[in-house]
Amino acid sequence: MSDLAVNATFYLIEPALLAAPPVSFGAIFLMRRRWPHVQSVVAATSAGVFFLILLFVVLRISFADFLVNCGLFAIGYLALCLLIASCGLISHKATRITMRIVTVIPILVGYVIGTGGLLGLIAVLSDYTPRHTEQMDKNLYCEISSWGMAFTDGGYDYRLYKTWDGIPFLRRKVESIDVDENQDESSSCADALAAYRKESAGSQ
After folding, report:
1. Which of 6, 90, 138, 204 has its CA 20 to 30 Å from the CA of residue 147?
2. What is the 3-state secondary structure (H, E, C) of 166-202?
3. What secondary structure letter does DSSP report for 89?
């Protein structure tokens, strides 16, 4: 993907990190005042969306389009912020206060990344944005991305994904190889494919 795609991901993620918390708290405050019966529905829906996305992460399932995945992150972060803002629904005072203290940490981290950590955010997005794709088999393809900066080590990531007939917009990461060029390492998508096939044969 081009640098234009990197910029697009940045302008999608960075506003989400900054805007999701105030929007969420404002929405929950308004619901509590005008439509109190809606707040529990919103909290339950947000929990469902957040844990579904979390399940995708655990199972290493994502969308084939990188920008869609960035949009999914923004939706998941908004759902998390809505859940945090809904902590007022917890009736037990000690539990409510504890949850508010614990759950505010992701928001603080998000603001640090979205403001003072902008260079780091840009670096992470640039490192993870695929630069090249190779079709390895009918339902297997490999994405190559480069990482590192002028004052750090640099290298490549080779990520092998499996797709399924009928749902080509979804994929599962089945193998990943991280190569550090400064350590004279070398690898390729073919190595990722070989490692996956070896692992698959061993599990049978």
Report:
1. 138
2. CEEEEEEEEEEEEEEHHHCCCCCHHHHHHHHHHHHHH
3. G
Average pLDDT along the chain: 83
Q: How far apart are the first and last CA of the chain?
A: 36
Which backbone phi and psi does 150 adopt, to 5 degrees?
A: -60, -35
Query: In terms of pLDDT, which residue wins out, 10 or 84?
Result: 84
Burial class of residue 156, CB neighbours in 10 A (0-12, 13-18, 19+): buried
Query: For residue 103, what are the contacts with CB-CB under 8 A and spacing of at least 6?
Result: 83, 84, 87
Packing angle of the helix pair 36-58, 66-85 (nearest 10 deg) = 140
Structure tokens at 133: 């794709």
pLDDT digit string (tens) for 116-167?
Answer: 666 667 666 776 778 889 999 889 999 998 876 655 667 888 999 999 998 9
Across the range 54-68, mean pLDDT stands at 91
Domain boundaries, the chain: 3-123, 130-203
Distance between CA atoms of residues 96 and 6, nearest Å: 39
pTM value is 0.80
Residue 133 has phi, psi (to 5 degrees) of -130, 140
Q: Which residues of 162-196 are buried (b: 16+ CB within 10 A; e: fewer)?
A: bbeeeeeeebeebbbbebeeeeeeeeebebbbebb
